[in-house]
Amino acid sequence: MSNPELPQLPVGFRVAGHACGIKSDPTRLDLALFASDRPCAAAGVFTQNRVVGAPVQVSRERLPSAEIRGVVINSGNANACTGERGLEDARAMTAAVAGQLECNARSILVCSTGVIGHFLPMEKITAGLPEACKRLADSGEEFERSGRAMMTTDTFPKLIGGQIELEGGRIALSGVCKGAAMIAPNMATMLAVMMTDAVLSPEQAQQMVSRAVDRSFNSISVDGHTSTSDTVFLLANGASGVTVSDETAFQAALDDACRELAQMIIRDAEGAEHFVTIDVTGLPDDRQAHRIAKVVAESMLVKTAITGNDPNWGRIVSAAGYAGLPFDEADVTLAINGTTIYEHGVPLEYPEETVSQSMARGEVHIDLTIGTGPGKSRFWTSDLTSEYVRLNSEYTT
Amino acid sequence: MSNPELPQLPVGFRVAGHACGIKSDPTRLDLALFASDRPCAAAGVFTQNRVVGAPVQVSRERLPSAEIRGVVINSGNANACTGERGLEDARAMTAAVAGQLECNARSILVCSTGVIGHFLPMEKITAGLPEACKRLADSGEEFERSGRAMMTTDTFPKLIGGQIELEGGRIALSGVCKGAAMIAPNMATMLAVMMTDAVLSPEQAQQMVSRAVDRSFNSISVDGHTSTSDTVFLLANGASGVTVSDETAFQAALDDACRELAQMIIRDAEGAEHFVTIDVTGLPDDRQAHRIAKVVAESMLVKTAITGNDPNWGRIVSAAGYAGLPFDEADVTLAINGTTIYEHGVPLEYPEETVSQSMARGEVHIDLTIGTGPGKSRFWTSDLTSEYVRLNSEYTT
């Protein structure tokens, strides 16, 4: 019986997590499968990096589509910077899954995450795939295993699931992702699979997943390093029979689910001791607000100040200042954890010790107002600790 | 008698370093003066940050000029984010120096570096200035003291001086700078004063210092954080009587001097264990090469890999990939310390242990070729160590 505390899957989806021996520890799960019993409208959002892994190239050319039947993901090897052979291997993975699910190879999507520049151990993958397919189930337990099978340096699987009442009836939306920055010599990645039994067209799926990603996975940063494999899929198999005529409600639910998953990545960020939310408001438009939020989030000096529970407003304001956007210092107001410490360009007297103590509890909320425009952005990040440096500088042969 | 091993000053310049008590340790030098016995053609390059310190605003509006007589610099307090009173204080500093040198206040330039958001202790500065002026001398020892008086978290003064044979005769060029990233709750800064006895017009000075800064101070990064006070001045007092008709030779000398000083900043970078040179070639133009070099230099994952002596080409190539410029992976070739490890998009077999050992000696040279175009850029950076995090996260009340 399925554990009711675990997130559940939408109707018509089955998943699996299996250990093929791709990772050095053969007991660790490293192959995740996501299958729908009927074709899905599917869309994807991919890394903006010019250097992309083979699976990104293969999946990208298959989307958007109305014929997607499943996704196969391996961890432990990114299949990136592997040239023609890498592309052949990625296609072979989809063909092997298609053989098991009795569909066309082009109906299968593929992702890989892990060490870069090594060829996939295809014999292990093809040997393990039939067993993985046998495991396919719609239980919360197997959903959790699929999440574990995507993990590299993650310390916990990242799942979400819920139901949404639309005009036409109730639908389900579930998602799973992985990500925790990167660790030598691995190139880890942000991957997510969102599944719903709502009825969507491929074009609807593409529009809605792109919007949701902007507000979630594109609004987090651990170290500002865009991986070669970042991928988010949305699969809609229509099993509920409920069409999404009310796009606003579905979009809101998808945004929420992606945001929850994105925040789990930040909570699992390598070496992190603080969870940081950055709100930027008052800019002429959301794009400008997003740009400033990102620069503040990625400033090493802001991050290290937060590590030290230091409400160092000078570092935050000056980081905003080098985002490349014009603004007047007299329009800048800053609050940390609810205490205004810089107002209209002037530093205020404030209870520094109290603010520092509130930061020490591990949650930091930065409210940066620049101007009186309608543009706003919310961004999440982690701090920068010696442990991050240790994790990422340890030399492994 | 002047120590011949110290860099010397050009004819007509005198300098001083004095302790006014701005820093908490009253024995530490914190006021630097640079004076010319005749008016200088002068130009400056300033921070691109939208939030700038009061001295930047005051100095910027006075340049370029043919009437500059001196520069006053204090350390220990950045006079930034201090509003109208900060501007008044900066102007008052120049007026006080002008009174001593018997010139117009507009002939004096000003810089401040140190803690942000605090008003300058003007009574200490005005009390110390006459003594500082009495110290003005053209000796190498006093030149070194002026360099020390600019330091915040720097561990050594950064000076250079030399002579250049131009067509019209011999001229001298000397410079001094400070910079070593930032430390809580200080906002440190990159400041430099370049002095020559060559004859230059203000327009020549502006053009040449802008070019030199692009190739030196704008081609280094410790943590990617643009300070609110970054400033480089070039003062040409013409005392040699030699006009710079051969701009190429003078530009080369100025470039060299600025580059040497910039490299001293990287060698003094907070917590750094590696000095890193990044050469990017093959792009359509220098701008694009510079952009990629900067992104690689500022990647936390590249920096931590270098800390661990790890020739992690995946991090370097993928950092180049997110610089926002189009290129083909098959056009990318990478060498570290002379060993090619990635060629035309394909990883090579190479002696990993040997390359790692060469990195462990503390100097890392990254050669990144992307395409066959004429664009190139050379950039310098440091690694990212736990010591940097410790220095920048320690909370000081």
Automatic annotation (TrEMBL), chains A, B:
<dbReference type="GO" id="GO:0004042">
    <property type="term" value="F:L-glutamate N-acetyltransferase activity"/>
</dbReference>
<comment type="function">
    <text>Catalyzes two activities which are involved in the cyclic version of arginine biosynthesis: the synthesis of N-acetylglutamate from glutamate and acetyl-CoA as the acetyl donor, and of ornithine by transacetylation between N(2)-acetylornithine and glutamate.</text>
</comment>
<keyword id="KW-0068">Autocatalytic cleavage</keyword>
<feature type="binding site">
    <location>
        <position position="397"/>
    </location>
    <ligand>
        <name>substrate</name>
    </ligand>
</feature>
<keyword id="KW-0012">Acyltransferase</keyword>
<dbReference type="InterPro" id="IPR042195">
    <property type="entry name" value="ArgJ_beta_C"/>
</dbReference>
<feature type="active site" description="Nucleophile">
    <location>
        <position position="189"/>
    </location>
</feature>
<comment type="subunit">
    <text>Heterotetramer of two alpha and two beta chains.</text>
</comment>
<dbReference type="GO" id="GO:0005737">
    <property type="term" value="C:cytoplasm"/>
</dbReference>
<keyword id="KW-0055">Arginine biosynthesis</keyword>
<keyword id="KW-0963">Cytoplasm</keyword>
<feature type="binding site">
    <location>
        <position position="178"/>
    </location>
    <ligand>
        <name>substrate</name>
    </ligand>
</feature>
<feature type="binding site">
    <location>
        <position position="270"/>
    </location>
    <ligand>
        <name>substrate</name>
    </ligand>
</feature>
<comment type="pathway">
    <text>Amino-acid biosynthesis; L-arginine biosynthesis; L-ornithine and N-acetyl-L-glutamate from L-glutamate and N(2)-acetyl-L-ornithine (cyclic): step 1/1.</text>
</comment>
<feature type="binding site">
    <location>
        <position position="152"/>
    </location>
    <ligand>
        <name>substrate</name>
    </ligand>
</feature>
<protein>
    <recommendedName>
        <fullName>Arginine biosynthesis bifunctional protein ArgJ</fullName>
        <ecNumber>2.3.1.35</ecNumber>
        <ecNumber>2.3.1.1</ecNumber>
    </recommendedName>
</protein>
<dbReference type="InterPro" id="IPR016117">
    <property type="entry name" value="ArgJ-like_dom_sf"/>
</dbReference>
<keyword id="KW-0808">Transferase</keyword>
<dbReference type="GO" id="GO:0006526">
    <property type="term" value="P:L-arginine biosynthetic process"/>
</dbReference>
<feature type="binding site">
    <location>
        <position position="189"/>
    </location>
    <ligand>
        <name>substrate</name>
    </ligand>
</feature>
<feature type="site" description="Involved in the stabilization of negative charge on the oxyanion by the formation of the oxyanion hole">
    <location>
        <position position="114"/>
    </location>
</feature>
<dbReference type="GO" id="GO:0006592">
    <property type="term" value="P:ornithine biosynthetic process"/>
</dbReference>
<dbReference type="Pfam" id="PF01960">
    <property type="entry name" value="ArgJ"/>
</dbReference>
<comment type="pathway">
    <text>Amino-acid biosynthesis; L-arginine biosynthesis; N(2)-acetyl-L-ornithine from L-glutamate: step 1/4.</text>
</comment>
<comment type="similarity">
    <text>Belongs to the ArgJ family.</text>
</comment>
<keyword id="KW-0511">Multifunctional enzyme</keyword>
<dbReference type="InterPro" id="IPR002813">
    <property type="entry name" value="Arg_biosynth_ArgJ"/>
</dbReference>
<dbReference type="GO" id="GO:0004358">
    <property type="term" value="F:L-glutamate N-acetyltransferase activity, acting on acetyl-L-ornithine as donor"/>
</dbReference>
<feature type="site" description="Involved in the stabilization of negative charge on the oxyanion by the formation of the oxyanion hole">
    <location>
        <position position="113"/>
    </location>
</feature>
<feature type="site" description="Cleavage; by autolysis">
    <location>
        <begin position="188"/>
        <end position="189"/>
    </location>
</feature>
<feature type="binding site">
    <location>
        <position position="392"/>
    </location>
    <ligand>
        <name>substrate</name>
    </ligand>
</feature>
<keyword id="KW-0028">Amino-acid biosynthesis</keyword>
